[in-house]
Specification:
The complex is a heterodimer. By secondary structure, chain A is of the alpha/beta class. Chain A has one domain: Hypothetical Protein Ychn, Chain: A (3-Layer(aba) Sandwich). In chain A, 32% of the residues lie in helices and 22% in strands. A five-stranded parallel beta sheet of chain A has the order 4-3-2-1-5. The longest helix of chain A has 9 residues. By secondary structure, chain B is an alpha/beta fold. Chain B has a single domain, classed as DsrEFH-like (Hypothetical Protein Ychn, Chain: A, 3-Layer(aba) Sandwich), CATH 3.40.1260.10. Chain B has a five-stranded parallel beta sheet with strand order 4-3-2-1-5. In chain B, α2 links the parallel β3 and β4. The chains are: A alpha/beta, B alpha/beta. Chains A and B meet through α1 and β5 of A and α3 and β5 of B.
């Protein structure tokens, strides 16, 4: 079964993201939402991307923009909330890390 | 697997004296009382809930940990703990619950992936 991981908190603040990256499998996907967008510049994320190049990673464009966060589109694809809803139908289940 | 046969994972990530931890146990017991296949997962700060000899009354908190002894009556027998979280916190495996399966991060994630509904507290 595949899982869509919704990461809502920042690894600079809490350790939810550290647990999230331990739980992700190659066929899963990760979505950075709200303060989770800050993770794009955290070493946990950078190392995760190196070790898991095939895992799909997305971020909510508005949430990054609202926080003046520049996220490299090679690292994470910008999506809208509508697209996020669509994504939830493409995976067997979701976990919200917060 | 038939549509009605959902496997529920209650993922505990909060420390003992925390409202979320009590709510996680309540959710597990409710699912159990409706005979839903329910498993308990303890990760991160959640592993602290498993430690023996905690005395919640000393800080005037209702000792909900005692209720965990009733899990078997609700057919909740699959209980998993994350070894990395225990090691990271220097916690030994002296739990107040029997039959806790301590798993590596990979095995823990594999088990999680076998569940349809995953609720994190």
């Amino acid at each position: 079964m595949t899982i869509l991981h919704l990461q809502r908190t920042s690894a600079f603040d809490k350790n939810d993201f550290a647990q999230c990256v331990l739980s992700i499998k190659p066929d899963d996907a990760l979505v950075l939402i709200d303060d989770g967008c800050y993770n794009a510049s955290h070493s946990l994320f950078i190392n995760f991307k190196k070790q898991n190049p095939t895992v799909a990673v997305f971020h909510i464009q508005e949430h990054a923009q609202a926080r003046a966060i520049e996220i490299n589109h090679d690292q994470s694809s910008p999506i809208t909330m509508a697209k996020l809803v669509e994504l939830t139908f493409q995976y067997n289940s979701t976990i919200t890390w917060q | 697997m038939s549509e009605s046969c959902k496997k529920i994972a209650i993922l505990n990530a909060s420390s003992t004296i925390n409202q979320a931890s009590k709510e996680a146990l309540d959710a597990a017991l409710i699912y159990g009382s409706y005979e839903q296949s329910t498993s308990l997962f303890f990760q991160g700060e959640g592993v602290r809930q498993l430690i023996s000899n905690q005395q919640l009354e000393t800080v005037h908190v209702k000792d909900y940990l005692k209720t965990m002894a009733a899990l078997a009556f609700y057919d909740i027998e699959n209980i998993y703990a994350c070894k990395a979280s225990l090691v990271e916190r220097g916690l030994a495996e002296g739990f107040h619950l029997d039959d806790v399966q301590v798993l590596s991060s990979d095995a823990f994630s594999d088990k999680l992936h076998q569940h349809n509904v995953i609720l994190r507290f």
